[in-house]
Amino acid sequence: MGNAARRATREKIRLQREQERKRERRRRQVTITLSVVGVVVLIVAMVAIWQSTRNRSEGYAGELAPISRTAEGDVVMAQPGVNAPVLDIYEDFQCPACKAFEETSGDTIKRLAAQGKVKVVYHPIVLFTQEPLKSNSLRASTALRCVPGGRPWMALHDRLFKEQPREGTVGFSVDDLVAWGKEAGVTDANFESCVRGQQGASEQLNYSSRTMQSAKIQGTPTVKLDGQELGDTAFVPGELESAVLEAQPK
Amino acid sequence: MTTQSSATAPLPTARAALPWVTTAARLVLAGVLIVAGWSKMGAPALSIEAVKAYQLLPTAVAEIVGYVLPILEIVIGLLLVVGLLTRMAAIVTAVLMCAFIVGIASAWARGLNIDCGCFGGGGALPPGQKANYLPEILRDVGFLALAAWVAVRPPGRLALDSALGLTPVAEEDQSPYRDASDEDDDPEAHEERNREKDD
Asked: Measured between CB atoms, which of B44, B79, B191 is closest to A39?
């Protein structure tokens, strides 16, 4: 074989290899692209499924079951004659997780109570010990004590979570509390002086420590169904509803 | 370690062991990511709350992160287990670890008292409980090192990347001479050399 022929053969082989390598590279790129697209689609699909099956608030705006304060200072929301199951809610107006809980499951709880499926007992406590969290929480919960019950109580309760001060900042000013109460539908003439005077503050602190001791509260929100702590279930409206329906008296 | 092994030909056993180190690192990271992601899956509201507790991101962004992060962790963990898109998965893991380190360090620097929410939970700590950020940061630095190792030496043994021929490293290994011969000004002599080597 002559030198030129050899050179031509080598050139051919070189081109073949070049093509092979290009094909291989293209195949690799296609596989990688498909894998990446597959992974992204998988992530989006999983997020969508997770979001929709364990969703946020249902947005209930219907009638509420009667709401009234007990002698101990708890607030009960239940249809007359409904005594079981009991859903105990321990919450602090300055606690972000409580806000998340109310935003997520609050409406489902209101509906279930209105339907007579559950007796709800709210325990608004002052959990925090450091400032300004403690004072914020105490001012707000003391102000709520000035509302004896009914729809205005719930409206102010919800408003307090909605207006929760950023952690570490002073909030829940007395002026705001008075204004929010009026917007919540409180008509009692003594309401404003009750909020401004904050006479209920010491009783609210006593009530808080009593409650935390007797119910063994470590953090908020603590949600108990017939005495059993619900944990994450409380934050998933669908699961919370199933738990309540399963606990119906036979 | 890498430079050493390429400069002085390492013991064959050491060279054979290196891909297994990558595999081990992959499995450790995968385990951590999957457990971390799974433990956040209990309730979206809590996952979002854990992100918000850092007070770093605007609410809307925190919500997206709260929804996406647990699932991202699980999917990246699965990719590391099977060794698919290993380098990309390792880089994403490294980015996540950097973000966690920055987040925890900034929470520490700002004096926040929060649960890192690393494995579920999260949010402000109850009074009397003190956050301990240093071990969390050191732990994540360790994971970052593992992720860097995997990113530098993917995909290790038992990897889909190898099975699917997605590893550029493998291609280079197959053809170290071909590339050289293209630029060689005396290709004939070079090919002779190759033949000898092949024998």
From this structure: B79
